[in-house]
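User: Show me sequence and structure for the first protein, then do the same for the second.

Assistant: Starting with the first protein.
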Amino acid sequence: MVPPYEPTSAVDTTTRERLLDAAAEVFCERGYEGTTVAEVARRAGLTTGAIYANFRDKAELLLKTIERSSAGVVADMETARSKGLSAADRLLLMARLMIADPDETERRLFIEMFAAARRDPDVGARVAQALTAMQAELARMMERAKSDGDVAPEWDAKVLARFCLSLGVGFTHLAVAGLPDPDPDQWSALTERMLAAIHPQ
C-alpha cells in the first residue's frame, strides 16, 4: 500500500534532487513501464519511503524530472530578459539551444512522458496539465513580445505558443528516433526568418 502523500518541505531539497537524478537515469535506461519506485530509491541510496514522502507516485516522479528541466529553461529565459534581450531574441536563443546544447536525457524523458500518457489515462491527464502549463508560459512570453513590439499585435499569443510547443515536441521526437539535428546555422537562419514574419511591419 502506498503511504499517504505529503508535500515536502524546504529541508528535503537535497533528497528530492537525489531522487530526481536517480529517476532520470532509470527512466532513460528502462523506460517508464520498466521503472520501479524501488529501483529509483536504490539508485539514489534511499528508501521507498523517501520517495513517497516527496512524490505521490511514479508518474509524478517522471513529470517532476521534466518540470525541473523546463524550469531551468524558463530561468535562463528570464535571466536573458533581465540582461536586456528582447522577447524575439530569447525565442531565437531557445531555438539555437535546441541544437547547440541538446540535453539527451531531457529528450528521452520527454518521449517517455508521452509513452506513459498513451498507456495510462491518469498519467495522460497529468501530462495534459503539464503541457498546458508549458503552453501558458510560452503564451506569456509571446504577450511580452507583443508588448515589446517584437510581435505584431494581430497575432494570437496562444496560437504562437502552440506553434512553438508543437515545434519543440516534434523536434524532440525526431531526434530520439535517430534523425540527426539539422545544420545549426541554417536552423538559426530559418528561425530568424520566421520571427521576421510575425514582426510588426
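Switching to the second protein now.
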Amino acid sequence: MENKRKVYISLPISGYDIEERRDTAMKMEIRLRGCGFDVFNPLGDGWVEGLTTQQYMKRDLKGLLECDTIIFLKGFNHSAGCHTEMTNAFATGMDIWFEEQVNMELK
C-alpha cells in the first residue's frame, strides 16, 4: 500500500471572513488532493463552530503532527496561529511549502 504524503494547510483565520477562509482552504485542498496528496484542512476536518482560539489551536496542532508537510497560504506571516504552526513544523522536521511555490509547481 502506497504511503501518501499528508499536507497540512496553514492560513490566517482570525480577523477574516470565515466563509472566505473556508473557501480559500477548500480550493487548495481540492488542488492538493487532485495531485494525489492526503490533506488536513483545519477549516474542513472536524471544524466545530464556537471554540476558543486556544481550543482550535490545540485541535489543529494535533492534526499538524499527523502530517509530514505544511503549506502556508498568503498572509501567513501576519498570523500568530500560523507562526505557531511554523515553529512546530520546524521542530518536527516537516517539509515546508509556500503557496507561491506550489502555484508554480502544481500548474
